[in-house]
Write a structure and sequence with these properties.
heterodimer; A: Rossmann fold; OB fold (Dihydrolipoamide Acetyltransferase, E2P); 2 domains; six-stranded antiparallel beta sheet
C-alpha cells in the first residue's frame, strides 16, 4: 500500500513567490497520477517535495500512511527519474542501475540479477558496459528509468522524462513507458507540461496553475468537462473555443445571444441573466454546413488548414473566432459562409470573471 | 594602367564561371595560412618557456668550469653531475629541501581541507553575503605579504612555532586559500546538482552523495587546485624568508645565499626548484585533461 496524501502542502520561494499553494491531493495506491500545468505552475516543486528534495513551508506529506514530511529522500522509499536524466557520468550503465542497490548493501549476485532484469525491461542489455557519454539521449533516458525501477520503490516519480527527446522518439517512449509502468504496478507521479502526454498516460490528471490544483480527474473527464476556462484552453489541441455571449430571457426560456443567433441555455444560467458568460466548445464538437440549416449559427470561414486526418477551420462569428474540425472532404473555402451547429450536450458555460464552470450542456 | 586594365575585363564571364572553385581554393589557402600562424605562435610561446628551462638544465649538468663558458653552447659537450653534487651537498640544502616538501604538503592538505568545503558552499548554497564573501576572500590577497608577515612572525613566536615548517605552512595555506576556494567553487558548479539529488533519492545521505558522486567528478579539478597550492608553496620565498631562520625552505635558503654563491650553485638551485613543479604538472596533466574528458553535461 502506497497511497500518497498531500495535506495543505505549501512552498514559498524568496518569501514571496507561492510556488505551491495549499495543495490537497490524494493519490491512490498503484495509481498513475499526472501533474499537468504550464511552466512555473509549481508541479515540479510539488514533486520535489514528495521526493524530499524540497522542504514544504506548510502542510504534511504522507506515503503509505507514514508521515514523511521530515524524512530525507533516502528514507521515503521513492525513486525518481529526473528531467535531465542525471545519469552518473563516471559510472557505467551497469553501475548506474546498480547504484541504489549497492547503497542498500545488497549481495553482488542479487545486484547483478536485478540489474540484468531491469536492463532487459528497458532494452539496455547491449549497453551495460558503456558510459553515459557514449549513449544517445534515448538510451540515457532508459538508464534513468531502469535505475529508478530497479529499486522497486513504493512510489515512482518522473519529472518530464520525455521532454528532452525528439518528437518521434517521444511518441515511441510514451507507449513503452505506459506499458512498463502498467507492468510495475507502483504508485506513479508524472510531471509534464505536455497535455497530450498527460491524457495518454495518466489514470488521473491533476491540472495545476499558479501553485494550485485547479482540477483533477480522469483524463477524459478533465478533457470533457474542464472545471475552469483555463483547463479548457490548456488541455486539447486546438484548445477549447470560448465565445462571449449575453444571457437573455426569463426562467423557462433562457437564451444566450451570440451575434445574431440566440442559443438555448440551461436553467443554471438564470443567475447570470443580463450578464455575459463564456461558452466553451471543443473543435470536434461543432458540426459545420455550407448551406443554411435551421437553428445554426451563421459564420464565415477565415482559414482552412488541412491536417491530413481532418481539416481545421478558423471561423468568425460576429467579432469572435473559433476553431472547428471537419472531414477532409468538407467543401471549405476561405471567406465562404458557414453554418455551425455545436453539439448541445458538449456546451460548457463559464463565468468570465471567475473563469469557473457554471453549467454543462 | 587603365588601358591594361580594360582587356583584363573582357574574360569576366569565364572568370565568374570558375569563381566558386577559386573561392574554395582561396579559403583553403587562408585556412592553411591561419593554421600555420597558429602553430608558429604556439611554437614561439613554447620556446619562450622551454628555452630558459633547457639552458638551466644544460648548465646544471655541465662541469663547473664549463658553466662560465661564453657564448653558451646549445648542445652540451660534456655531461657531469659535479655541479649538482656541489649544490646538493652544500650546507643546509638537503634539510631545506625536506622542509620545502613538508611545508608544501601541509599547505596542500590544509588548504584543500579548508577551502573545498567553502568552495562547495559557494557553489551550492545561496546565502546572505555570498557575493561579498567571494570578493572579500580575494581582497585578502591585496595585503602585501610584508605587512602580514611581521605581525604573523610575532604571533608565531608567541605560539612557539616560529622558525618551524608549521609557521610557513600556515602562511602558505592562507595565501593559497582564496584560490582554492574560488577554483573548487567553480569546479563544484560544474557538477550538476541533479546528480547529487539523484544519488540522494537512490539511498545516499548528503555526505554519501558527495563522496560517491560529486567527489569523483570533481577530483580532476580538486587535484589541480591542490597542485596549484603545492607549486605556490614550493615557489614562495618572501614569507618563508621572514618566518624562518634555520628551518629554511629551499627558496628561502637559495635567496639568502644567492648573493654569496657562485654561478654553478645558482644554476643547480634553479634546476632543483624547477623540476618538481614540472614533474607534478606533467603527471597531473593527463588527469586534468583526460580523465573525465568525455563527461557530458
Amino acid at each position: 500500500m502506497a497511497e500518497i496524501r498531500l495535506d495543505g502542502v505549501t512552498k514559498t520561494f524568496d518569501r514571496k513567490v507561492r510556488a505551491v499553494d495549499d495543495v490537497q491531493l490524494t493519490i491512490a495506491d498503484r495509481e498513475f497520477m499526472v501533474l499537468l500545468g504550464p511552466s512555473g505552475c509549481g508541479k515540479t516543486t510539488l514533486m520535489r517535495m514528495i521526493a524530499g528534495l524540497e522542504y514544504p513551508d506548510g502542510g504534511r506529506i504522507a506515503i503509505g500512511g507514514r508521515d514523511v514530511t521530515d524524512l530525507p529522500p533516502r528514507r521515503r522509499d521513492i525513486a525518481m527519474v529526473f528531467q535531465s536524466y542525471a545519469v552518473f557520468p563516471h559510472l557505467t550503465v551497469f553501475e548506474n542501475i546498480a547504484f541504489g542497490l549497492r547503497m542498500r548493501k545488497m549481495a553482488k549476485a542479487e545486484v547483478a540479477r536485478k540489474v540484468e532484469r531491469a536492463a532487459v525491461l528497458v532494452q539496455l542489455e547491449p549497453y551495460l558496459g558503456r558510459y553515459s557519454a557514449q549513449l544517445s539521449g534515448g538510451q540515457r533516458q532508459r538508464v534513468a528509468v531502469a535505475r529508478a525501477i530497479v529499486m522497486e520503490p513504493s512510489v515512482l516519480l518522473m519529472d518530464e522524462p520525455l521532454s528532452n527527446l525528439d518528437a518521434l522518439l517521444r511518441l515511441t517512449f510514451r507507449a513503452e513507458l505506459k506499458k512498463l509502468v502498467a507492468e510495475l504496478n507502483t504508485t506513479t507521479i508524472y510531471v509534464t507540461h505536455d497535455q497530450i502526454e498527460a491524457l495518454s498516460l495518466g489514470d488521473r490528471v491533476a491540472v495545476m496553475r499558479e501553485g494550485r490544483v485547479v482540477q483533477h480527474g480522469t483524463p477524459m473527464a478533465v478533457y470533457d468537462r474542464p472545471a475552469t476556462s483555463f483547463v479548457g484552453s490548456f488541455i486539447g489541441s486546438p484548445p477549447m473555443n470560448f465565445l462571449r455571449g449575453r444571457v437573455e430571457g426569463q426562467n423557462g426560456d433562457l437564451r444566450v445571444r451570440l451575434g445574431e443567433h440566440a442559443l438555448a441555455a440551461p436553467a443554471a444560467l438564470a443567475g447570470h441573466a443580463g450578464r455575459e458568460v463564456l461558452l466553451g466548445i471543443r473543435a470536434e464538437n461543432i458540426e459545420a454546413e455550407t448551406t443554411v440549416v435551421p437553428d445554426a449559427i451563421s459564420a464565415r470561414t477565415e482559414v482552412v488548414e488541412p491536417l491530413g486526418s481532418h481539416l481545421l477551420l478558423t471561423a468568425v462569428v460576429g467579432d469572435q473566432r473559433l476553431k472547428l474540425q471537419t472531414r477532409t472532404d468538407f467543401p471549405a473555402a476561405p471567406d465562404a459562409p458557414l453554418w455551425l451547429r455545436p453539439e448541445p450536450d458538449k456546451l460548457r458555460w463559464y463565468d468570465p470573471e471567475t473563469s469557473q464552470e457554471i453549467a454543462a450542456g | 594602367m587603365s588601358v591594361a586594365a580594360r582587356p583584363a575585363a573582357v574574360p569576366v564571364p569565364r572568370e565568374t564561371a570558375i569563381a566558386p572553385d577559386r573561392g574554395r581554393r582561396a579559403r583553403a589557402r587562408r585556412k592553411t595560412l591561419g593554421r600555420a600562424l597558429l602553430y608558429a605562435t604556439a611554437a614561439l610561446l613554447a620556446l619562450f618557456v622551454l628555452a630558459p628551462i633547457y639552458l638551466i638544465t644544460v648548465t646544471a649538468f655541465t662541469p663547473r668550469d664549463a658553466v662560465y663558458d661564453y657564448p653558451k653552447r646549445l648542445i652540451p659537450e660534456s655531461f657531469s653531475i659535479e655541479t649538482m653534487r656541489f649544490f646538493v651537498t652544500s650546507t643546509g640544502v638537503l634539510g631545506s629541501l625536506w622542509n620545502s616538501v613538508v611545508v608544501a604538503l601541509i599547505s596542500l592538505v590544509l588548504s584543500t581541507l579548508i577551502g573545498t568545503p567553502a568552495g562547495y558552499a559557494l557553489a551550492r548554497y545561496v546565502f546572505r553575503g555570498r557575493d561579498a564573501f567571494r570578493l572579500t576572500i580575494l581582497s585578502t590577497r591585496a595585503f602585501p605579504i610584508v605587512i602580514l608577515s611581521i605581525p604573523l612572525a610575532v604571533s608565531f613566536i608567541d605560539w612557539g612555532i616560529y622558525d618551524t615548517v608549521w609557521s610557513v605552512a600556515l602562511m602558505h595555506t592562507a595565501l593559497a586559500l582564496p584560490f582554492t576556494v574560488l577554483i573548487t567553487g567553480s569546479i563544484f558548479v560544474g557538477v550538476p546538482r541533479d546528480l547529487e539529488e539523484a544519488a540522494q533519492t537512490l539511498g545516499c545521505s548528503p555526505a554519501q552523495a558527495f563522496v560517491r558522486v560529486v567527489l569523483p567528478l570533481a577530483l580532476p579539478g580538486l587535484a589541480a587546485a591542490s597542485i596549484f597550492t603545492f607549486v605556490l608553496s614550493w615557489n614562495e620565498v618572501f614569507a618563508a624568508t621572514i618566518l624562518t631562520l634555520r628551518e629554511r625552505t629551499l627558496p628561502a635558503l637559495v635567496l639568502s645565499s644567492l648573493a654569496a654563491s657562485p654561478a654553478p650553485f645558482r644554476f643547480a638551485a634553479a634546476w632543483f626548484m624547477l623540476v618538481p613543479s614540472l614533474i607534478i604538472i606533467f603527471v597531473i596533466r593527463r588527469y586534468l585533461l583526460g580523465m573525465w574528458g568525455r563527461v557530458s553535461r
